[in-house]
Amino acid sequence: MTKATTLAQGRSYLAIPGPSVMPDAVLRAMHRAAPNIYAGELINMMPDLTRDLRAVARTQHHVAIYIGNGHAAWEAALANVISPGDRVLVPATGRFGVGWGEMAEGLGAQVDLIDFGKHSPIEMARVAEALSADKAHEIKAVLAVHVDTSSSIRNDISALRVLLDDLGHPALLMADCIASLGCDVFEMDAWGVDVMVTACQKGLMVPPGVSFVFFNDRAEAVRNAMPRVSRYWDWMPRAHPEQFFEYFGGTAPTHHLYGLRASLDMIQEEGIENVWLRHETLARAVWAASEAWSGAGHFAMNVADRDYRSHAVTALRLEPPDGTRLRTWVEENLGLTLGIGLGMAEPGDAAWHGFFRLGHMGHVNGHMILGLLGGVEAGMRSLDIAHGAGALDAAAQVIADSQRAAPDADVADHAVDQPAQQCCGS
């Protein structure tokens, strides 16, 4: 039998954990002529833009904008509060905590790394032990990743604040929310986070290129006591600009700002609590399917405990090279792109070809996630990759159950009234 033509025509689906799917509203907002950068709407939009960014981060404090990716935000945050020779504590759960620690080392900091591996969250007892041993309070900051994009582990950032407070340790609590902001619940002020970094290309649904550092008054006081801070990375003029160009350390990322305005409008219209709930529900659908697939063969989820799974990304594995085979098949045959197994094995290691990730962050809804899961199932069937049964039924049940609510009163009234109207010839 002749193989059917590819089914990859039509709009492709980038189901990787960032860059995420770009909403049409964002793309339309960016598809415009370059604006005046000296007067007019671009300048006038900034106070509301920064206000709405703070609302997503759940903070009343400060935000600095950088033209750069998440790595730029890492360095910017460190440059404002860490001097060469300072100690920082990095409890790492996957690749990105290690990476932030490496960034700190590059700036001359002494890094105390506690590596919890690629499958487990931060263990508070081990962090407490390290902080308790620091009698002289030489550790200036704790760098923790809220959601590690490589392992899909979600850490309890609020518990770190409780730990620091209980021990009376003055270290700043710094959180990487690059993968989690606008997806997983995050409360900067309520959780006592001093510095938070994120970027625009995941939960904020804007093309890569802009990142953000949020900081509170306590972190600002540390910055003000620094002997020197790079003029470019200095967050003070960006957070407290006297002139428009100071927001960005130079020319504004004009079209990104228009896209960001559109994305923040979408988040505001939906409501951040509803955004969190949508991501939780869709994540549970992904988990239900993945747990069913894990019933046979070598299919496995990277994080066993649901309490520590991200609502934005799910890391998975198969027997090598089936992860790569599956990614290749769904992209070539369905127009569906899955994430590589970043950080789970070195690219030269054969094990690398067993890992892959599903991104379910930002501009995603129920039918997109069901389509994503159906594509993965079709790929495994076509490639004869052993997997458990019932995955799509399980995912569909999660989504169906999430929408089982009492009918709206107006709808119910209309349903009752309609037959009577019809019988009377209305």
In short:
The chain contains 14 helices and twelve strands. By secondary structure, it is α/β, with parallel strands linked by helices.
Could you characterize the architecture of this molecule?
This protein has 426 residues and is of the alpha/beta class. The protein folds into 2 domains: 13-19 and 271-402, Aspartate Aminotransferase, domain 1, CATH 3.90.1150.10; 25-269, Type I PLP-dependent aspartate aminotransferase-like (Major domain) (Aspartate Aminotransferase, domain 2, 3-Layer(aba) Sandwich). Helix content is 42%, strand content 14%. The chain contains 14 helices and 12 strands. The protein has helices at residues 24-30, 41-57, 70-81, 95-106, 124-132, 157-167, 217-224, 235-239, 254-270, 272-293, 322-334, 366-382, 391-402, 409-423; strands at residues 13-15, 62-67, 87-92, 110-115, 139-145, 172-176, 195-199, 210-215, 300-301, 313-317, 336-340, 355-359. The strands form 2 sheets. Strands 2-8-7-6-5-3-4 form a 7-stranded mixed sheet, with helices on both faces. It has a 5-stranded mixed sheet with strand order 1-11-12-10-9, covered by helices on one side. Strand 5, helix 6 (157-167) and strand 6 form a beta-alpha-beta unit. Helix 2 packs across helix 9, helix 10 (272-293) runs parallel beside helix 12 (366-382) and helix 11 (322-334) crosses helix 12. The longest helix has 22 residues, at 272-293.
